[in-house]
């Protein structure tokens, strides 16, 4: 008898099949002496659509809402049904005694497998492969320690709850808003409170009123000292007259050092990466989007097998991994990492609770190298950058803390207290891995400060005299909170428990795709549509607290502490309430992107929307399907200055190209060639046809063709 192994992706199936000795490749599976390995294509099965319950739901009507099926049905996804049929046929084979779930080891991976098993009616025993890396050794060890599939029933229940909750809340509220206000308005259990946080930040920025303040700094020759308020300790002075008075009081005066404090401080090494922290760092350092980081990381995990499981929320390792850490260090000790790993490998590794802590690991441990050999030259630029972050963070775990001396001086001048501070590195510790010379703690949020702690202070002792060479009055302004970028938005989503490490990147991409937020450089900015959507959505659905409670309950269900039935009952009740609010609403929606042009089919105003290839004009009526390219569409014509694609416009003198970044303008001289500098294939064919009718062949025809084509290029 053989074992059927179900993986999530063809690439994973191929690798597992190789390790298990399944060398016979078939259309839908690999087969060997003991195993048959097949694969899903992501989700092959999904929750049924409303019109699968009743055809009347094909039309979106407010009166039909909420849609609350008594029992949620499953259906095979049409686009991947061929692979589902292949798995279904395999499941009927009499020589298969059991099934091993080898999908991703997490909530969604469990759902992928269980839904397939439900529709193929798998009744035989099943087990679970639970591994955190795709190396050959990990696969072999995983198959030698397979766990009973029923051990993960609670995880499956949590996955079902998440999926049904998103269907019930997202589908019903989206249909209600869209039907009520006649526009495509998408809402969801996680995306709506995430959008609301961004709208609230915009309101804070809009309402912020900048205020002038002043700093008083004294140049004492060998160092600088800053005045602080004796009551509050604040360096800022919001009264201009007081600042003027202090500056005048200190100018040219003498004083003395009244106190010296010197303490040794240290910054422990940063924790290992979880997915969210890695996404934040990649965004801050390289400008990667959260989705881009996830995609690159998945390749490092699956294709190259050089990092461990990506979708983790833990920053710690487990005690059973401790014996493997030296081997992982040796595997990573290549190229620029070899001299950093060498001193660590000469002695036993210092493994502390800051590295290994079983109590702080749930499904998966932190992201670290696997120890597999890797040729850095085979990695793309993005893969190389992300791998560099992971390896350096792993190396830093075994270096000591960064130690430095912090010296603080208190100076008395004309009865005013001024303060100076400086820091000097005693032992770089883990900072050596990064070659950094700053004193920031990577596990803390960055904050703005007016303190100058980087100056080198002179050797001094109490009662030493000082003289003010120059008193400076520095004018500053209070700043509004910054707009969200992906790093800061991920931090807020994590803080409020919105989504999971595996889903947060997709939530951000959904908001961009639905035109409720847009990227402007590194910032994420709500659109006019997003602002209106939040005004129309229920106040409770906008609240991150509600979604955070739901996420916490899903975790409780996964751990066997919560009730699936109670959770879904509450979701259904909340769905009824949210739809009722939309129905009763007397608000109005006005599309933010309406143009002055009218639809030639129905007469409604056209809206300008963004597509993958540029901007489009679409009819604002949901019943009308009119769509055309907008003026300013991107072309393949390149800017002679920055070499980016140029837009094509129509002016009074005809069509012209324009480069947005450089504002370079070029006239479109050759319509036949599509405006390019070189004749198109169509234009060349026309030339051949033109000259082929003329008398003379051979060299004379070739000469004429060459001359004509050269003339076309010059034009």
UniProtKB/TrEMBL annotation:
Source domain of life is: Bacteria
* Pfam annotation, one family: Topoisom_bac
Annotated spans, Disordered:
436-487
- The Enzyme Commission number assigned here is 5.6.2.1
Give the UniProt keywords, A-Z.
Answer: DNA-binding, Isomerase, Magnesium, Metal-binding, Topoisomerase
The UniProt record lists the Toprim domain at 2-133
Transmembrane residue ranges? none
In this chain, composition skew of type Acidic residues spans 443-453
Keyword Magnesium included in the entry's annotation: yes
SMART domains attached to this UniProt entry: TOP1Ac, TOP1Bc, TOPRIM
Q: Which residues form the Topo IA-type catalytic domain?
A: 152-579
Q: Which reaction does it catalyse?
A: ATP-independent breakage of single-stranded DNA, followed by passage and rejoining
NCBIfam families linked: PRK07726.1, topB
Q: Which family does it belong to?
A: Belongs to the type IA topoisomerase family.
Q: What is this protein called?
A: DNA topoisomerase
- Origin species: Paenibacillus planticolens
Q: Write the lineage as a comma-separated list.
A: Bacteria, Bacillati, Bacillota, Bacilli, Bacillales
């Amino acid at each position: 008898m053989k074992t059927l192994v179900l993986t999530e992706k063809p690439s994973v199936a191929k690798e597992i099949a190789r390790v298990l000795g399944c060398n016979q490749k078939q259309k839908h599976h690999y087969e060997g002496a003991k195993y048959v390995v097949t694969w899903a294509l992501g989700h092959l099965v999904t929750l049924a659509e409303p019109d699968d319950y009743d055809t009347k739901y094909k039309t979106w009507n407010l009166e039909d809402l909420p849609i609350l099926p008594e029992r949620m049905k499953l259906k095979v996804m049409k686009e991947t049904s061929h692979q589902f049929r292949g798995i279904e046929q395999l499941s009927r084979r009499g020589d298969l005694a059991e099934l091993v779930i080898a999908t991703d080891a997490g909530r969604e991976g469990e759902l992928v497998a269980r839904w397939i098993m439900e529709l193929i009616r798998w009744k035989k025993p099943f087990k679970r492969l639970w591994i955190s890396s795709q190396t050959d050794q990990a696969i072999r060890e995983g198959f030698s320690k397979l766990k009973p599939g029923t051990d993960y029933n609670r995880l499956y229940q949590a996955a079902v709850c998440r999926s049904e909750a998103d269907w019930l809340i997202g589908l019903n509220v989206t249909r209600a808003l869209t039907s009520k206000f006649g526009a495509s308005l998408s809402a969801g259990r996680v995306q709506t409170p995430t959008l609301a946080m961004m709208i609230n930040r915009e309101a804070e920025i809009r309402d912020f009123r900048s205020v002038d303040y002043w700093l008083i700094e004294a140049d004492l020759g060998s160092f600088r000292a800053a005045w602080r308020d004796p009551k509050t300790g604040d360096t800022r002075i919001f009264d201009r007259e007081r600042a003027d008075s202090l500056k005048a009081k200190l100018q040219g005066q003498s004083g003395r050092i009244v106190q010296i404090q010197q303490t040794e401080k240290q910054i422990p090494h940063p924790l290992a990466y979880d997915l969210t922290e890695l996404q934040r760092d990649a965004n801050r350092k390289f400008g990667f989007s959260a989705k881009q980081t996830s995609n690159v990381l998945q390749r490092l995990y699956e294709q190259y097998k050089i990092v461990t499981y990506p979708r983790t929320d833990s920053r710690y390792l487990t005690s059973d991994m401790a014996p493997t850490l030296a081997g992982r260090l040796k595997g990573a000790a290549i190229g620029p990492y070899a001299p950093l790993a060498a001193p660590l490998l000469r002695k036993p590794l210092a493994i502390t609770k800051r590295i290994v802590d079983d109590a702080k690991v749930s499904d998966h441990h932190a992201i670290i190298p696997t120890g597999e050999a890797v040729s850095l030259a085979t990695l793309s630029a993005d893969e190389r950058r992300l791998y560099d972050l992971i390896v350096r963070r792993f190396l830093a775990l075994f270096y000591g803390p960064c130690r430095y001396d912090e010296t603080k001086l208190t100076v008395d001048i004309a009865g005013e207290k001024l303060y100076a501070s400086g820091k000097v590195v005693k032992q770089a510790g883990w900072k050596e891995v990064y070659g950094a010379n700053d004193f920031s703690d990577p596990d803390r949020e960055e904050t703005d400060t007016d303190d100058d702690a980087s100056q080198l202070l002179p050797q001094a002792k109490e009662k030493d005299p000082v003289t003010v060479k120059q008193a400076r009055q520095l004018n500053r302004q209070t700043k509004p909170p910054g707009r969200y970028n992906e790093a800061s938005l991920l931090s807020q989503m994590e803080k409020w428990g919105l989504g999971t490490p595996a889903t947060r990147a997709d939530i951000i991409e959904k908001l961009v795709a639905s035109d409720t937020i847009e990227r402007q450089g590194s910032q994420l900015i709500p659109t006019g549509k997003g602002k209106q959507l939040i005004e129309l959505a229920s106040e409770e659905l906008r609240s991150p607290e509600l979604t955070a409670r739901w996420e916490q309950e899903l975790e409780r269900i996964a751990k066997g502490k919560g009730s699936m039935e109670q959770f879904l009952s509450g979701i259904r009740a909340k769905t009824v309430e949210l739809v009722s609010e939309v129905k009763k609403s007397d608000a109005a929606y006005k599309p933010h992107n309406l143009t002055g042009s009218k639809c030639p089919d129905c007469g409604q105003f056209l809206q300008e929307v963004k597509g993958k290839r540029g901007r489009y004009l679409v009819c604002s009526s949901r019943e009308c399907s009119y769509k055309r390219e907008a003026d300013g569409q991107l072309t393949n014509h390149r800017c002679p200055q920055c070499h980016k694609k140029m837009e094509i416009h129509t002016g009074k003198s005809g069509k012209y190209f324009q480069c947005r970044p450089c504002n370079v303008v070029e006239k479109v001289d050759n319509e036949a060639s599509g405006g390019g500098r070189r004749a198109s294939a169509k234009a060349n064919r026309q030339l051949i046809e033109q000259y082929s009718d003329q008398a003379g062949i051979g060299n004379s025809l070739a000469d004429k063709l060459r001359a004509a084509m050269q003339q076309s290029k010059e034009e």
